[in-house]
Write a structure and sequence with these properties.
Order of helices and strands: HHHHHH
Helix content: over 70%
Largest sheet: none
Number of helices: 6
Shape: globular
Strand content: under 5%
Distance between the termini: 32 Å
Amino acid sequence: MTQQEAKTNEEFEQTLQECRTLFEKKLHDYGASWRILRPQSLTDQLFIKAKRIRSLEIKKESLVGEGIRPEFVALINYGIVGLIQLFHGFSDTVDMDNKAAMALYDKYAQEALELMKRKNHDYDEAWRGMRVSSYTDFILTKIERIKEIENLGGETLVSEGIDANYMDIINYAVFGAIKLKGES
């Protein structure tokens, strides 16, 4: 592993820890209320977060007072929620306690980290030369792909599944959050 890859791993882990802390606090406040989200609703939640980032990138002004970085953090957390929902289904009630929710959060965050390490090795730190706006566009593309796969009932011919798209959304959002660290 190169020194640059080690730095990326550390920054990625720090960002995931920041997201985990926020997730845990929201879990305390709201419980696992997201368990009721059906797949299409979760996709739409990801969509509005990514569209807000793109809008702020273009307009260069936020009237709500929050910047782009918190939206990348939200995309990371909702991406992990998406993986939980995908593999554990949705529920009509909150059927998961906070401890179980955090264990699943940690499982899927770790999987995203391991995927990033493999891809970053193969892509040779290419993410560092990219613009943050490209992460936004790639995330929006992944969301559109998820919508299409949902419309197809999950039946694809040659494409990666919804889970791979969630993982890519998480990883692009982490890269965006890393690049925007120090900004709100």
